[in-house]
Amino acid sequence: MCGIVGYIGDGNVYDILIKGLHRLEYRGYDSAGVAMVGDDGQLNVYKTMGKVSNLETFCSQKNLGARLGIAHTRWATHGEPSDTNAHPQTSQDGNIAIVHNGTIENYKVLKDALIQHGCKFASETDTEVLVQLIEYIRVTNKCSLLTAVREALKQVVGAYAIAVIEKSNPDTIIAARQSSPLAIGIGDNEMFLASDATPFVEYTKECVYLKDGEVAVIRRGEPLKITDLDNKDARIDVKTLELSISELEKGGYPHFMLKEIFQQPETLRDCIRGRVVEGGRKININGVNDNKEVFLNAKRIVIVACGTSWHAGLLGKYLIQDMCKIPVEVEYASEFRYSNPVLDERDVVIAISQSGETADTLAAVKIARDMGAFVFGISNAVGSSIPRETFSGCYIHVGPEIGVASTKAFTGQVMVLTLLALAIAQLKGTLTDAEIENLGKKILEIPSAVEKVLKLADKVEHLSLIYTYARNFLYLGRGYSYPVALEGALKLKEISYIHAEGYPAAEMKHGPIALIDAEMPSVIIAPKDHLYEKIVSNVQQVKARGGNILAIVTEGDQQICRLADHVLEVPDMPECLTPIITSIPLQLLSYYIAINKGKNVDMPRNLAKSVTVE
Ligand code: M6R
Q1: Is 119 one of the catalytic residues?
Q2: Cβ atoms of residues 402 and 412 within 8 Å
Q3: Residue 611 Cα to ligand 1 middle (Å)
Q4: Which of 70, 153, 368, 387 is within CB 3.0–4.6 Å of 349 for a Cys-Cys bond?
Q5: Is 609 among the residues known to form the active site?
């Protein structure tokens, strides 16, 4: 998983590429590089380990005048992060440069064959194999770069979004995609390409999302041309971007993660808008309205997702089973795809993915579709692969999420799943009109309740000082609070690098209770719900073993307040709506602990925002 950018036009090539790389740094940041056909007619390739800012320092004394260029920010898959393994990768003769996002699965076979033909490799990357193959075909067949790229791609098995340039051709960039995203921006006498539209949204709103198997020829002064690998013309579908620049900047916050946590009242309003109507009496989800028969006849729902989206999916199971009386299974997409799933046309598969590009989730979508299931997508990134590969779906509309730790996307996903469950229940009559209206009205109150929860930020910041140096945490919850516990633990792990385990509170006595001592805090999510008395006992069990407890409770709680060492009180909500409210103090806790530890919260080590490789 990596980010790629390309530019051709009269603007400052280097500046546009670097700015674009900064926007894509959420996709990977262990090395970065640019290749430009310079004013001097040379193919100038500059690359180095580390973040894009390192690349800028590295380039400060270089010749940066250029006619076109491509650039890359990397998250290593084949070959450790190093200057040599950084992209762009170049052909042996130094004439061709490539940037690549994805993995070439058969790179070993191709590499061995090229070595037999005398090819020498400088890096350990699968990407170098592709550029060497392109060069080999170009030289052996004496064909154009475009033909060589097409012929090379026919031999490749795997996922790629690539951009290729050549020293002798300062007016052309060739791009192609298979299972990795690639967007092309069309401006006035200039064109851009990137892994998503954020690098070029400030220059143009006209965007074409390349489809699998397509090759684009981006040539100075000529209209965009797209073909398939056999050179058959493809339809060019120009979309208008709705993104704005302010959405991509920190807006006065020190980190994107904090901005995104504080955006939640607004993002939830956007997510609900037009979907809870007639004062809460009606739930309007187009994907359900347009497919009534599918949802009425669904015998089972299978939810596939990864990471935080999987936690939202687990909440989706509770919501749909409670409200719609349809059995639901929740699967890690990475397991589902290799588990010989049994599906048929009466199954509905819901794929949840913020980025819409997670490789395992996308693969699960394709499998489900091939087996005849109805596939419904829940995504944030408009125009990404999952919405395009699913039959129907629903966007969460929370705007670009840049911080690697998912926050506003999680609450948006949970909100959409709640609305989806209500819409299906309304259709099937498994909830009464009064029950729907009651929940509909409460949903409309959620953004203001979230505003209130965010007022706890100072208290959470203060508490974080007490907990920063704990080496292990237990997060406990029951029912709807169990997935919240899992999500709270994941947030802490990924940005503060503290080990944390999320556990169903009642399961604790079957093992993890042995871990409890004064050194290991338990974060217990205990809102007033039908399991409240049960979790009070779990709190007592932890207390009796000398454990330190931070509890998330409903305002006015007395029992847990007496037992816990610290409490954070959140507004009262119907049980099924508590996860959105109780997850927010946990987001803040992980943020402040990571800050106290001096960690880079927006770009945690070893992680990237969207995982487009297996
Ligand atoms: O884009 P997706 O929702 O498909 O991403 C899935 C996971 O990679 C993602 O949720 C990951 O776990 C986050 N870093 C969690 O904060």
Answers
A1: no
A2: no
A3: 8
A4: 368
A5: yes
